[in-house]
Write a structure and sequence with these properties.
- By secondary structure, this protein is an alpha/beta fold.
- It is built from 12 helices and 8 strands.
- α3 links the parallel β3 and β4.
- It binds phosphoenolpyruvate.
- Phosphoenolpyruvate binds next to β8.
């Protein structure tokens, strides 16, 4: 059985001290619970200090982005190796905000995935359709293109360190979550396509999180779907109590 994975994407929020307090709240609430995997993904400047808060606990540390080079003249960018150095185990790539605001392509996301995996990070790869794409019945075509492009040359072996996050763009930060059935349908499609790309065993093993307005009051039904293996949580990850309720909903 796949272990549920709940990750908090703090985006460009918190101060250093507020981030430390939030991480400490998560650490205290998670305590020694290991039936669910938990990660927090703070902004870059706070990673080092939050690494100290989560050190030696079951709570993992993730970054929200990386650049696909080891080092060099890339002003303002952060390499996967630097994230390892600072204590990260995970990195989010392909978030819809990066795709939309920063015009990141599947080819660029693919480079990031290879660089991150090569450096020893686990990747949370986000995919998802816009409202317009859903309304024009292009959801599966969009997910297909994002999966195929982002996972180019990612073997079944490499995929063991990849988590997928299905995040319908229309559900992110809107308060309108996908219905459990919409999430299940998309997850089942994604798992089927992973099977075609990397084999049946990889498809059965891969963790597929749902993201998009996950809150304490909808987490249990979303996480109760057979192909929903966790949640990538934005807004509700900024309050320890709310995030911990979602974590508890993930305990099987
Ligand atoms: C996200 O940005 O990954 C996200 C799912 O945000 P929210 O939970 O706020 O919709």
């Amino acid at each position: 059985m796949r272990k549920k994975f709940i990750a908090g994407n703090w985006k460009m929020n918190t101060s250093g001290i507020d981030g430390e307090l939030l991480a400490a709240g998560v650490v205290n609430g998670v305590a020694d619970e290991t039936r669910v995997t938990v990660a927090v993904c703070p902004p870059f400047p706070f990673l080092a200090r939050i690494a100290q808060v989560v050190k030696g606990t079951p709570v993992a540390l993730g970054a929200q982005n990386c650049y696909p080079k080891a080092n060099g003249a890339f002003t303002g960018e952060i390499s996967p190796g630097m994230l390892i150095d600072v204590g990260c185990q995970y990195v989010i790539v392909g978030h819809s905000e990066r795709r939309q605001i920063f015009k990141e392509s599947d080819a660029f996301i693919n480079q990031k995935i290879h660089a991150a995996l090569g450096a020893g990070l686990r990747v949370i790869l986000c995919i998802g359709e816009t409202l317009d794409e859903r309304q024009s019945n292009r959801t599966e075509a969009v997910l297909d293109a994002q999966l195929t492009g982002s996972l180019a040359n990612v073997t079944a072996e490499l995929l063991r360190n990849v988590v997928l996050a299905y995040e319908p763009v229309w559900a992110i930060g809107t308060g309108v979550n996908a219905t459990p059935q919409q999430a299940q349908d998309a997850h089942a499609f994604v798992r089927k396509r992973v099977g075609q790309l990397c084999g049946a065993a990889a498809a059965q093993a891969i963790v597929i999180q749902y993201g998009g307005s996950v809150k304490p009051d909808n987490a249990a039904t979303l996480l109760g779907q057979p192909d929903v293996d966790g949640a990538l949580v934005g807004g509700a990850s900024l309050k320890a109590d709310d995030f911990l309720e979602i974590v508890r909903a993930g305990i099987q």
